[in-house]
Design goal:
Elements: H1 7-19, E1 30-35, E2 38-44, H2 54-57, E3 61-70, E4 73-82, H3 88-94, H4 98-101, E5 105-110, H5 114-121, E6 127-132, H6 138-148, E7 151-154
Parallel strand pairs: 5-6, 6-7
Antiparallel strand pairs: 1-2, 1-5, 3-4
Helix pairs in contact: 5-6
Length: 170
């Protein structure tokens, strides 16, 4: 007899399955929208529909520098990101209705970046659950979501289903 999965594991498994649709060579990310125990939508990161993805046209990498204060000292942190893809969280917002998002939970394979956290904070969701950390934005994302009153939690002990995890490049 198999052991039944808890709801967090079940929905995070589905987010990881959605991530397998991604064609991004740097990171496969999946997200699902859940209200209660009902799955309302899924999404993954990728180029806009009908546009060549990174595998076909290459990544569009931009470099940004962010000033951070560490131990009372300001330092510049270099961040690289691809701007060809729409993030899984952004696609989830684009392809779900506001009324469905109100009071819902988003399960996402990776901790949201600053932009996605901002969008989710205004999307109507009440909770964001993620698995893999994204340390470049953690502190400011956690602060924003706390100020907004959203539940923000990590499933640290979670193990993704076999075949769903791709190498992650930051």
């Amino acid at each position: 007899m198999s052991i039944r999965k808890d709801w967090d594991t079940y929905f995070m498994d589905i987010a990881y399955m959605a991530s397998t649709r991604s064609q991004c060579s740097r990171r496969h990310v999946g997200a699902v929208l859940v209200q209660g125990k009902k799955l309302l939508g899924s999404a993954y990161n990728g180029a806009p529909m009908g546009v060549a993805d990174c595998g076909e046209a290459g990544c569009m990498i931009v470099e940004e520098f962010e000033a951070r204060v560490v131990d009372g000292k300001e330092e510049l942190v270099r961040k690289q990101r691809c701007i060809r893809t729409i993030h899984a969280e952004q696609n989830l917002i684009l392809f779900t209705d506001r009324k469905d998002r109100e009071g819902s939970t988003v399960y996402v394979t990776d901790e949201p970046c600053w932009t996605c956290a901002n969008m989710l904070a205004n999307s109507g969701v009440k909770e964001i659950v993620y698995h893999r950390p994204y340390p470049k934005d953690t502190a400011k994302v956690a602060k924003l979501l706390q100020e907004r009153g959203l539940v923000f939690r990590s499933l640290e002990a979670y193990e993704p289903p076999g075949g769903c995890v791709e190498p992650v490049q930051n």
